[in-house]
């Protein structure tokens, strides 16, 4: 097998070798800039550009009978508007060999309580090896009722049953303490939690040292629960990282926003979250560590979204008919057989092999009834637009119902033909397979994206995109007690956006050699602005570029979008109306959003969630304060 798609000169091969050594050694782009070894445009000081390396996007071709006929190009690839054309292409992998891991059959494990010793404390227990340096601010008010241990460590996992592909050396989360020595899970174990049941998670760092990282990854971590209503010391702030041998206790109150302010004692149920995820967020190394496997999902239920279709909103029951799906794309280096990561890919990394719940293009068997699918895109840089495709009838408009934007339910279900999911966005959908017994469908990505900058704006025709998940309707006929989404007229509704705002701020996401927000790059000790606790603000979030797309994530509070490019958020053809924690800034977009900042104080970031942009410093620190707060309109 050949390492590279293109024939390289000896000098280019030397650059590739040096790049791999820098990544393996835990050197960040920020370090290279500080040392004067690289310019902000990603060029080595001797004038030789470093590469943007990512795999060629491919799709599996399947005929109308479901027979695999080969592997074909589905979207063109540009090998470097910035950097030399060094394109690592993965070896071919036979698709549709593995079942989709799910919590319903135990192949995706659910997190279980653990006895923790020493017992958790409000103040950091540094004497016992805790890496936390800030006291818990809500531990006494919301004492944990469940305790979990989770260990971050290395392990070898198979991503496919194709015998030509070796198990991958990944970093993942293992249930329990290091002494229990359980195997890692990638994605990490699924948290299944309920509102008003506070929990505490103790993360143990037992990753291998940097010299044994398998080529990339920083064994210094901080786990972010995206987008929990979480006190800042437990948020997984990029700068609150801890090291090998340490642990870190994170307290998740699992309460509705407003519990200490606008809705004392209860919180506002209209702020309910349901589909969250967690991932490593270590400053400068989020992209490497999440790409290596440090990510998982976290579900929250309440007395409306109950997990039981006989009660509440009557959504399909978990786990039998409610199936989380984690999508990401990877590149495998044919010379090593292992995952490939390019630190110097400045615009973003596109993989050429598609995984769902840790398996390459798996298969899901379903019964002829309604299902809830929870779609999460962990990136690092690809956007998806998912369609439900029947290869025997490519002209069919196979609609489904979208019921969420990010972790939040919409005001009501919306019937759609597709859903777009940027990096870190989540979309919950209801798909009805009633009357479809014997048929086969595919979750197909038809969005054209040529490089890591973002989608080009076009769509492939049905059947010409990336067939990522095969769904076979061959399960037994079972009762369906879930509600037809067409008959659901309302979920929670949304809080109003007419309360007075204390300040309006503007954030411009731009590329001027570095990835910047309002002309500045990120630094841990640079607090760009302060928000007064229990106040409301209006933010304008603007993408200055025409080529680059930025899914912008703001920690801690969800927002409501007031306008996108001067127009009200749409519900067709793509659902943009709703409460969100990611503003999907596409080409030259401007979003105006409304925030309430309540209940807790401390530091949080705003950043691009194309994690390559994030690690190249497209992030800003801000702080919620109990008194004061500034009114800087462009921090």
Descriptive notes:
With 635 residues, the chain is mainly beta. The protein folds into three domains: 10-63 and 91-99 and 322-487, Sandwich (Immunoglobulin-like); 126-301, Cupredoxins -  blue copper proteins (Immunoglobulin-like, Sandwich), CATH 2.60.40; 503-625, Immunoglobulin-like (Sandwich), CATH 2.60.40. Helices cover 5% and strands 33% of the residues. It has four helices and 35 strands. It has a seven-stranded mixed beta sheet, with no helix packed on it. A six-stranded mixed beta sheet has the order 26-25-28-33-30-31, with no helix packed on it. It has a five-stranded mixed beta sheet with strand order 16-24-23-18-21, with no helix packed on it. Strand 1 (58-62) and strand 2 (68-73) form a beta hairpin. The longest helix is centred in the first third of the chain and has 15 residues, at 10-24. The radius of gyration is 23 Å and the shape is globular. The N and C termini lie far apart (51 Å). The relative contact order is 0.13. Mean pLDDT is 89; it is low at 1-8 and 44-86.
